[in-house]
Amino acid sequence: MSTKTDTPRDPESGPAAGDAGNDLGAAGSQLSTAPREDVTLPSLGPLGWVRWFWRQLTSMRVALLLLFLLSIGAIPGSLIPQTSIDPVKVDQFKTDHPSLGGIYDKLGMFHVYSSVWFSAIYLLLFISLIGCIVPRTWQFVGQLRGRPPAAPRRLTRLPAYTTWRTDAAPDDVLDAAGRLLKKRRFRAHRSGTAVAAEKGYLREVGNLVFHVALIVMLVAFAVGSLWKSEGGKLITEGDGFANSLTQYDDFKSGAFFDTDTMEPFGFTLDKFVATYERTGPQKGTPRIFRADVRYFSGADGKEHKTSIEVNSPLDIAGNRVYLLSHGYSPQVTVKDGRGKVVYKGAVPFLPQDSKNFTSTGVVKVPGARTKDGKRNQLGFQGFFVPTFGGKGSGSMFSQFPALDNPRLVLTAYHGDLGVDSGLPQNVYQLQMKNLKQYKVGGRAVAQMMQPGQTMTLPGGDGSITFNGIKTWASFKISHQPGNGLALTGAVAALLGLAGSLFIQRRRVWVRAEPADDGSGATVVEIAGLGRSESPRLPEELGALAAALEPDAPLAPHPEDTVEPTDSDGPAEPSEGARA
Amino acid sequence: MNIAAAANETLAHNSNVLVYSAMAIYTLAFVAHMAEWVFGSRSKVGRTAAALTAQATAAAPARADRQGGGTAVLERPKVITKTAAGSRDVPDGPGAAGGTEKGDLYGRIAISLTVLAWALHVGGVVTRALSVQRAPWGNMYEFSTTFAAVAVGVYLLLLTLRKNVRWIGLPLITTVLLDLGLAVTVLYTASDQLVPALHSYWLWIHVSCAILSGAVLYLGAVATLLFLFRDRYEAKLADPAGKQPGAFAASVLERLPSAASLDKFAYRVNATVFPLWTFTIIAGAIWAEAAWGRYWGWDPKEVWSFITWVAYACYLHARATAGWKGRKAAWLGLIAFACYLFNYYGVNIFVTGLHSYAGV
Ligand code: HEM
Question: Which of A8, A66, A533, B59 is the most exposed place for a label (fewest CB within 10 A)?
Answer without folding.
Answer: B59
